[in-house]
């Protein structure tokens, strides 16, 4: 898997809030079955990463290059991740999302994620995060 390309996508999508290359490598090595990429003709268009924490799956990041958004890529990545979680017998998936990231919230609600709480000033820019959860 091309870590440099994933890191490039992370920086394009999240700018100053992007994960470090070290964290991306750690997620990839620790949870390879929950680090999925979308490719077309050998080019990585996006990815999703998640971890297993006790009794649930925690989605860390989902990113798609801006020029390839609204083409179903994030939806397909989420479907695949949720299928893998179900196969492993996981009963719950959680994530945090910026309260003002309406596009992402719309995606998560499409999969029946529910807002379960708010983490104040969760992000480096001071934005609050919704804690969202999906029961599988």
What does this structure look like?
The protein is an alpha+beta fold. It has one domain (3-135): 3-Layer(aba) Sandwich (Aminopeptidase). The protein contains four helices and six strands. The protein has helices at 3-14, 21-30, 73-87, 102-110, and strands at 35-40, 43-53, 56-64, 92-98, 114-119, 129-135. A hairpin with a 2-residue loop joins strand 1 and strand 2. The N and C termini lie far apart (29 Å).
By CATH, the superfamily comes out as Gcn5-related N-acetyltransferase (GNAT)
Major beta sheet summary? 6 strands, mixed
CATH domain class name: Alpha Beta
Uncertain stretches of 5 or more adjacent residues: none
Give the name of the CATH architecture.
3-Layer(aba) Sandwich
- Counting DSSP E segments of at least 2 residues, the number of strands comes to 6
End-to-end separation in angstroms reads: 29 Å
